[in-house]
Design brief:
single chain; mainly alpha; two-stranded antiparallel sheet; 62% helix; disordered C terminus
Length: 181
């Protein structure tokens, strides 16, 4: 069984990895923009060019991973069971300036898009104005075109910087537990 010191080291590694994932997502964004500009036509299978898919998925998967890593570390530091939505609620409560609560619908949608990318196929729909990600849950009503969705994911990832940096300093446990939404 790992010691508290070993667990603390793993926790710091998770937080460092979360920051790195956010940086990787930012790396993909201008490449996604360029690919969308360059490859206007679908490929022979009726799908977006592989560059578009790769950079879009890179953003979604990296931000989803950063969320998970941040929540796992926070659960350990705050000595709470790992339940993503509950921990995100605690982060929102303890860091109100981050305003993650405003993005809870997007976070749920992002996780579903991520699950589809990993376990099935994430449908991309094309119309005259470009490529769109399918609406999975109906919980997020924001723009679903690939570039807007990717930008919202980056904004969400950027908001995690404040709690991540604070958690790296091992803040005290929150004052109260929030049950899973």
């Amino acid at each position: 069984m790992p010691s508290k010191i070993e667990n603390s080291r793993h926790c710091l590694e998770y937080l460092g990895a979360a920051l790195r994932k956010i940086r990787i997502a930012h790396f993909h964004y201008p490449l996604l923009q360029a690919a969308l500009e360059r490859y206007k036509e679908e490929d022979e299978d009726g799908l977006p060019h592989i560059s578009i898919q790769a950079h879009f998925e890179g953003i979604v998967l990296c931000v989803a991973s950063a969320i998970d890593k941040t929540c796992e570390a926070a659960a350990f530091i705050w000595e709470q069971p790992y339940k993503r939505n509950s921990i995100l609620g605690m982060i929102n409560q303890n860091f109100p300036e981050v305003k993650l609560g405003e993005m809870i619908r997007f976070q749920k949608d992002l996780q579903e898009v991520r699950n589809r990318m990993v376990h099935r196929n994430s449908e991309k729909i094309r119309d005259s104005s470009g490529w769109y990600i399918e609406d999975n849950l109906g919980v997020y009503s924001g723009n679903r075109d690939l570039i807007s969705y990717a930008k919202t994911a980056l904004d969400y990832g950027d908001k995690l910087n404040i709690p991540i940096r604070s958690l790296q300093g091992h803040q005290s446990p929150p004052s109260r537990n929030i049950t899973e939404a």
